[in-house]
Amino acid sequence: MLYKVLVVDDEAPVRDLLNDLLKREDCKVSVCPTGEEALELLKKDTFDVVLLDIKLPGISGLEVLKNIRDTDKSLPVIMITGFGYNEDLISKSKEFGCSGYIGKNMPVAQIIEIFKQFTKNAKTGE
Q1: Which is nearest to 64 in space by CA: 41, 87, 43, 36?
Q2: Mean pLDDT per segment of 10 residues, for the chain of length 126 residues?
Q3: What is the pLDDT of residue 114?
Q4: Does residue 82 sit within a domain?
Q5: How far is residue 79's CA from residue 8's CA, in Å, rounded to a whole number?
Q6: φ and ψ at 51, to 5 degrees?
Q7: Could you give phi then psi for residue 61, rounded to 5 degrees?
Q8: Which pLDDT score, from 0 to 100, does residue 95 have?
Q9: Rounded to an integer, what distance in angstroms lies between the CA atom of residue 102 and that of residue 120?
Q10: What pLDDT is stored for residue 99 in this prediction?
Q11: Which residues, 6+ apart, have CB-to-CB distance to 36 below 8 Å?
Q12: Helix ranges restricted to H, the chain
């Protein structure tokens, strides 16, 4: 197993796609639809990387990111953005310490390449 990954997205097709893609990359994947559930999973288990939707019902992706940063400054958190994303949200997530972004509309190969780059950088401390 390469990485233990938490995928947080309220859209089932996005969760399913990322789950399938990451499992093909030999990752152990946990998925959940809400920020609240993500925070509970993060209390119970450790992950190598979190893929986190920026817009979630209830606790937003930004709030989850802030909560993660309060307890773990080094955990890579890659924000998932939808088509026509909000620049203000992107700016705030950078401010809160996200590691990078993937877009829901990106080609699959590009999503995997970005994921690999961020996880490689996290392992090497870049």
Answers
A1: 36
A2: 91 95 94 97 95 93 95 92 71 86 87 82 56
A3: 85
A4: yes
A5: 9
A6: -105, 115
A7: -60, -35
A8: 87
A9: 16
A10: 87
A11: 58, 59
A12: 12-24, 35-44, 61-71, 87-95, 108-124
The encoded tokens of residue 39 equal: 């925070």
Q: CA 54 to CA 84: how far, in whole Å?
A: 12
DSSP letters for 5-19? EEEE-S-HHHHHHHH
> Rounded to an integer, what is the distance from CA 108 to the centroid of its chain?
15
In a domain, 126, yes or no: no
Q: In terms of residue numbers, what domain contains 40? A: 4-120
Is 13 inside a domain boundary? yes
C-alpha 126/C-alpha 38 separation (Å) is 26
Between CA 74 and CA 92 the distance in angstroms is 18
In a domain, 114, yes or no: yes
Tokens coding 108 = 């699959």
Structural domains in the chain (count): 1
Question: CB-hemisphere CA count at 13 Å for 3?
Answer: 24
Domain CATH number, residue 32: 3.40.50.2300
Token digits of residue 25: 């990359």
